[in-house]
Design brief:
Elements (H helix, E strand, L loop, with lengths): L1 H45 L3 H29 L1 H19 L5 H29 L4 H31 L3 H20 L13 H23 L2 H24 L14 H30 L4 H7 L6 H16 L1 H19 L8 H27 L7 H32 L4 H8 L1 H19 L9
Helix pairs in contact: 1-2, 1-4, 1-5, 1-6, 2-3, 2-4, 2-7, 2-14, 3-4, 3-6, 4-14, 5-10, 5-11, 5-13, 7-8, 7-14, 9-12, 9-13, 9-14, 9-15, 9-16, 11-12, 11-13, 12-13, 12-16, 14-15, 14-16
Length: 464
């Protein structure tokens, strides 16, 4: 009887731990999406031009994407529990500060620091799952649930952003504080203490080089949307130089930050590219759709959020349907199907009209929800399978880096095309249509990345 009770207690504890870690993934997803839906309201409240408004999202992306590799490796070296909890506390503190921010500059600064905190939080959380659960069906199911709820956070964040903005835009800062505090209360007693200590070195020179390279690359892309050609070229040249220095460092370092074997052609590399394409298309598409509904059609933030609610279908399907499909067809066939639905979503919206009724938008939005249902979780499994435990944090960091890097590229490129179309004399609606070509192209690239793996013998996973 004692053994039975012990096993039951262990299962309950494991379920609560997964709930806490999923809460962090959901928090990260909902935090990003809420700000996208709240941008027009923040613009009006703080009198921000479009170029500066974009930096509320882009600043977060730069902090997140720039520090993700360092965050993942730090978790591997100094302990995933320690890094996770410290990052969560920082996230809570700066989010609370953002709720009382007096101007746009403060909001942007808060979002940058929040992104850095998330860069340490997310790879540590995923690595806790992949090192706590034995590889196989049990881990795959846990990862699919984790990734599914993270994707659901993106979708439900649209609705939450609309609801909270109706009460005031500052609530998009305060609400994550409440959710993060609940996660912290659960995580402190549940996350197992790490046996790993700083017996390994962190390769600080490599960390500085790659962080600077990623930050400057994203800044180059962001600057191209609204800055000068000289500034963009300058940032780009420095970024390339830092990447070259980082590659040279990784070949000579005794314990490199990113062992080059993790970047060889294979399933992991395809997963990184696929995640980048999915994020890039989604961010660019969402940005234009929100502007279309709120600034052209005059819909409120709440009405916009309700209209986009259908995208949150992945909150139901990802943890339930996706494991069954992966078991039946294999990871890459499910991923490829998700990428096809993403490209279809962007294609269906490209003919948007001034007076579209909601039913005309529905197929596109529904296809986007199905895309996240099918692609996001399996991409996470593909990126972390067959990786040694000592590199799980780093692998998670690589995955999230490409996701955020893709988001930055998609958002900046879409914005740049929309601004350029407007400058060339296109009307507001025509500029939106032109900008939507960017997500479509990215969606097609995502399909091209996934299909070669899908046509091979499928990697069948027994996650049920």
């Amino acid at each position: 009887m004692d053994a039975v009770e012990t096993r039951a207690t262990s299962r309950i504890r494991a379920a609560l731990l997964l709930a806490a870690l999923c809460g962090a993934a959901f928090l990260e997803g909902i935090d990003i999406a809420m700000f996208n839906i709240a941008l027009p309201t923040i613009r009006q409240a703080l009198d921000l031009p479009t170029a500066e408004l974009q930096w509320i999202v882009s600043g977060y992306v730069i902090g997140y994407g720039g520090f993700m590799l360092l965050g993942g490796r730090t978790a591997d070296v100094y302990g995933r529990r320690r890094v996770f909890l410290i990052a969560l506390v920082v996230f809570i503190g700066v989010s609370a500060l953002g709720g009382i921010a007096p101007n746009g500059a403060t909001v942007i600064a808060v979002r940058v620091v929040t992104g850095i905190a998330a860069a340490f939080l997310m790879p540590a959380g995923l690595a806790i799952i992949t090192t706590s659960v034995p590889e196989g069906p049990q881990r795959d199911r846990a990862v699919l649930i984790y990734a599914g709820l993270g994707a659901a956070g993106f979708s439900l964040g649209l609705v939450a952003g609309g609801l909270l903005t109706a009460f005031g835009w500052r609530w998009v800062f305060f609400a994550p504080v409440v959710l993060a505090s609940i996660v912290l209360v659960l995580a402190v007693p549940l996350i197992p203490r790490d046996e790993v200590t700083a017996r390994r070195s962190l390769d600080l020179p490599g960390a500085v080089l790659v962080t600077g390279a990623v930050v400057l690359t994203v800044t180059t892309i962001e600057n191209a949307a609204h800055g000068t050609l000289f500034g963009s070229l300058t940032f780009g040249v420095v970024a390339v130089t830092l990447f070259a220095g980082f590659a040279a460092r990784q070949r000579t370092a005794a314990e490199p930050l990113v062992p080059l074997r993790l970047l060889r052609p294979g399933p992991q590399t395809n997963a990184y590219l696929g995640a980048g394409c999915l994020a890039a298309g989604f961010m660019g598409f969402q940005f234009i759709v929100v502007l279309y509904l709120q600034e052209l059609r005059g819909w409120s933030a709440l009405t916009t959020a309700v209209a986009l609610l259908v995208v949150a279908i992945d909150a139901i399907l990802a943890p339930t349907l996706t494991p069954v499909l992966v078991r039946r067809f294999g990871l890459w066939r499910v991923i490829a199907a998700g990428m096809v639905f993403a490209a279809l979503s962007f294609l269906l919206f490209i003919g948007v009209e001034q007076d579209w009724v909601y039913l005309s938008m529905l197929p596109s939005l529904l296809a986007l929800g199905i895309a996240f249902t099918l692609a996001y979780g399996p991409l996470t499994i593909a990126a972390t399978d067959d990786v040694e435990e000592s590199a799980q944090g780093l692998t998670s960091g690589l995955l999230y880096t490409t996701f955020q890097f893709g988001a930055a590229i998609g958002l900046a490129t879409t914005t740049a095309v929309q601004v350029a179309a407007t400058a060339a004399g296109a009307g507001q609606l025509d500029s939106y249509r032109t900008a939507l070509l960017v997500p479509l192209v990215l969606g097609v690239i995502g399909v091209a990345v996934a299909l070669p793996r899908a046509w091979r013998t499928p990697q069948v996973c027994a996650a049920a």
